[in-house]
Amino acid sequence: MTGKLGDRLLHGYTWLIIAWLTAPIIVMIMFGFNDKQSKSNTSWQGFTFRWYGELFADSSLTGALVNSLQVAVVSTVLTTVIGTALGLALGRHRFRGRGVSNFLVFAAISTPELVMGASLLSLFVSGNTPRGLATITIAHVLFSLSFVVVTVRARVVGLDPSLEEAARDLGAGTWTTFRLVTLPAIMPGVLAGALLAFALSIDDYVVTSFVNGNQLTFPLWIMGSVKVGIPPQVNVMGTLIFGIGVAIAIANAVASRRRA
């Protein structure tokens, strides 16, 4: 009886934590359908699809979202390419400074965003670099690069080297071996790192607020509109972003199951 009671308590506690974590998402989705009649969007005033039809009615909000998507796409591409190369080097090869490189990778992950943002701001100011989308993109590449490196490196470490050796024995060159053997084998890690980099970029606020200059991203726009009232389009955009992320995760899980 004690064991059964403990299991029930553990199950109940687990569902309680899940409910706590999903409550903000549910509220966001719900208030995307709120028939708002005033500046405040904190009370339910009726059900409507109006805001989905007027999703891009606020040009400043749309511009901020476009900026976030541009930065996220560019930084994800750069981070994935550089991080995959670094992950391959750290996971496959032994070279002088490998231990220091591994330390720096994990140090970047553990560094508080406040410290990273302040240090990047000092770097750009000392170099007289105009702050804008370019500096935001550079900052996002720097703080998300380590996550891609760690993800790809873990996949490379588990890769059977005999597969590459067999390809070389059959006459494949270095590039052919990488393209036909190594890259397909580590692709799940590469895709996971890319998705993680995109997610970190699209919702970053702390680091971006240090290096944005006069450019606004989606999170910065939302924070700036808190005093005057957050429009319901924000909830709609957040719902769509969340839905796309869930769809990608489900598609990835289905694809992985089929490959297995």
TrEMBL record:
PROSITE patterns: ABC_TM1. The keyword Lyase does not apply. Residues 65-252 form the ABC transmembrane type-1 domain. Coiled coil: none annotated. The keyword ATP-binding does not apply. CDD domains: TM_PBP2 (cd06261). The chain crosses the membrane at residues 12-33, 69-91, 103-126, 132-156, 177-202, 236-255. One of its GO terms (biological process) is transmembrane transport. It is found in: Cell membrane. Pfam families: BPD_transp_1. It is a multi-pass membrane protein. Its main location: membrane. Keywords: Cell membrane, Membrane, Transmembrane, Transmembrane helix, Transport. It comes from the Bacteria. GO terms for cellular component: plasma membrane. Gene3D superfamilies: MetI-like (1.10.3720.10). Belongs to the binding-protein-dependent transport system permease family. CysTW subfamily. PANTHER family: PUTRESCINE TRANSPORT SYSTEM PERMEASE PROTEIN POTI. This is Spermidine/putrescine ABC transporter permease. It comes from Planobispora rosea. The lineage of its organism: Bacteria, Bacillati, Actinomycetota, Actinomycetes, Streptosporangiales.
